[in-house]
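Holo model, pyridoxal-5'-phosphate. Inputs:
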Amino acid sequence: MLAALGQGSVAELFEVIPERLRARAWDLPPGMSEPEVGQYLAKLAGLNAQDLVCFLGGGFYDHHIPAAVDALISRGEFYTAYTPYQAEMSQGTLQSIFEYQSAICRLTGLDAANASMYDGGTAIYEAAMMAVRKTKRKKLIVCTSVSPIYRIMLKSYTVNLHLELVEADLSDPSALQGLLDQDTAGLILQNPDFFGVLHDYAPHFEAVHAVKGLGILGCNPIALAVAKTPVEMGADIAVGEGQPLGLPLSFGGPYLGFMAAAEGLLRTMPGRIVGRAHDKEGRTGYCLTLQTREQHIRREKATSNICSNEALCALAAVIFLGLMGKQGLVELAELNMTQAAYARERLGAIPGVEAVDQGPWFNEFRVRLPIDARVAVSRMIDKGIAAGFPLGRYYPDQANNLLVAVTEKRSKEEIGYLAEGLEAVL
Amino acid sequence: MKTIFEKSRPGRRAASLPCSRVDERFCQLSQLPPELRREKPAELPEVAEIDLVRHYTLLSRMNFGVDVGTYPLGSCTMKYNPKFTEWAARLPGFAGLHPLLPQLRRGGLLAQGALRVVYELEQLLKQITGMDAFTMQPLAGAHGELTGIMLMAAYHKDKGNQKSIVLVPDSAHGTNPASAAIAGYQVVTVPSKDGVMDPVAFKEKLNDEVAGVMMTNPNTLGLFNPHIAEITEAAHRADAIMYYDGANLNAIMGYAKPADLGFDIVHLNLHKTFGTPHGGGGPGAGPVGVVEKLMDYLPISRVEMRADGTLFLNYDHPNSIGYVAPFYGNFGVCLKAFAYILALGGEGLKEVSEDAVLAANYLRVKLGDKWEVAFNRPCMHEVVFSAEDKAADYGVSALDVAKALIDEGFHPPTVYFPLVVKESLMIEPTETEALENLDAFIAAMGRIADKAAGDPEALHAAPITTPVGRLDEVAAARHPVLKEPEDQGA
Ligand SMILES: Cc1ncc(COP(=O)(O)O)c(C=O)c1O
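Output:
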């Protein structure tokens, strides 16, 4: 090859880099063989808790992932491809995204979904920005029962944008009076809320529509199998974290932000969107569409800067939804609720422990302990149980409150250990 | 092909759920009151596992990945992704780990392995780029750019600087101006001269209003900007921050470090340079590195080491810009990149850049007979051709060339980007394509060039070997059908 270039050495090809700017040190370790790297990583994996019984949730859940999900997304034709710019040779990715968009629309009841956002938090931020763009207004109202993690993200992203971010407890819609005004771009709520409680936010969204703002609802995709849909409540945009749909917890990612919106918001949506199309012979296919919203065409005027998204996670999600199916997803949601209801009763029966909310709940709930929940949880870790998330970390006035998540994977026995263990450490 | 919804048959199912075994009365509790319940179930497919597995297997066969063949999609670094990194990411000790665990008191001790991956990867990326600290939070390249601009803003705010402009060269990737704009900055474009950002034009645009400059070097034309020191020194005199888009790091590993070139912030695309697969459009990961003066502003948490050698999450950085991701980034992707870097080692990474640059130059020279190189001088890891002459002489566009390559069994290069070259074909062979694959690509491009002259109609008709031909994208955008109608498969 060098001969073809008329070059004596590869180093000559780097001569365009001025000598004084060249790397002086390159102190990286020597390479390793596959078995050596494998051993090292297996050792590191072994330093993480493996058999902990998990009652941690907070928006991220230990659900069962059917084996077929991984088998299918592990096909190299899918996972070693990139964004389907060349539609004719990317029909697999494109059609599966179209199916994913269809499934998200059917879950949320809304008109159009995009191909994915990075995660649930960035999806909320992007939805908020859609509301700002669409209404040309500056105020965003966020309920304090929206994930505190996502609220911090929203604050971080918007701090320089001259927006007004108002946080308030909006469980009762009358709390919106005095907040809603002619400058309100959007109202952001979450169902089930961060404490696991299910709501009907129809009155809230009616109120925000009365001032011509937009309603944004963060949702748990499995709860959507049974809960009132965003569209039935009057939301204009639904977003959420898709991790429960067949994605491993994987220490925080890769996850999947999903987004769906009402028809009229389509052209302000961020991200890739796949549409159905036809070739000259009338054959049906799929292609990226409405690209004039996007950064590669519009540059600084684009609706978002997103380019790579979470396509493979969206594929996992649509496969998961297909495997669960129409009836199975409802059963899965109900099983989560059943196990959680049992856990709630068991924990509530412990002397000194009481339920905080009235419910109804999905698969997570909070209980008030007689001691600091952080202390209780750290004692439970010795028993091999991650008992839940102490809320004091994000809600300083809730130091004794523990958020407990129960999925279909938590058996009656494990719930029993949790109750017995907790009773013993209090 | 029919959609999974069209294949739905009432009553079929694949779900296998555990039995509850708790008292019946708890099941009653899972029945929601009507005002909280959806009216009817979502019309998800009703299929058996075999139906579903065949469906997605057939779809995968209508897809083209690096595992299938050569994929010289410029700017995207479509190198081969070693399989053992997939294995690593699926180790239960990593895949099953709940991200909130280390936020529990004493929970961090149960996540030491994962924290070590983040910590050690940070050390390696620091060494590779010369930066002083990294955050793994950004979830893709563009997300890294947004994070970087937020860091830039925090720096200027702290110093009391009033700056509202970000400069980008005209050859920049679309995400650069988009990221600066959504972070609240006005974007000003700097023209290129002879393929690279012109230092004279740059200095004309540079003033006290400029908060930062976003560049990639080599740029999207595959050309290294030899004036980089002059540019970064001028920028620093104006207290502007130099941002390095690391999408093109594959060209310079072991030869140059962004910090030595004068950059203050860098994002890396782990899914490009460090061999993690692109997933059909993601997930990626876009860690951001900074020099010391910007360290205080990095997102929280940061993984730090205690005196006893254990690692912990430090949230106590009061000047931090906050959270850009819910946790510690796309950990699974970071883990694959970590495995990749460990396997290659310092020498291996240097060889990556050498082979990538060698391959691109080989194509530049060998294709040069029949194709017009946009800038005919040694390139780095990618090379841009123009089909402008073919378009003028025979009416054959870059798009026609791309579609013809599909029939030849290759993924086409990036077309119509960078915008500074008309009818551009941006080719990035990467280091993992063997000589015979490069030669096969050259031969295919030769046949296409001949056809352009001899039988241009055949190129307009391409591709003919795919499940569908060219789709009417204009009609698709005018009357968007973005989902299966509800009555389908219901
Ligand atoms: C030069 C350049 N910059 C930035 C990006 C954006 O990276 P990502 O797609 O990971 O967001 C890309 C990727 O397409 C790129 O090629």
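DSSP finds 13 helices and 15 strands in chain A. The CA atoms of residues 300 and 367 of chain A lie 48 Å apart.
Archived with the compound record.
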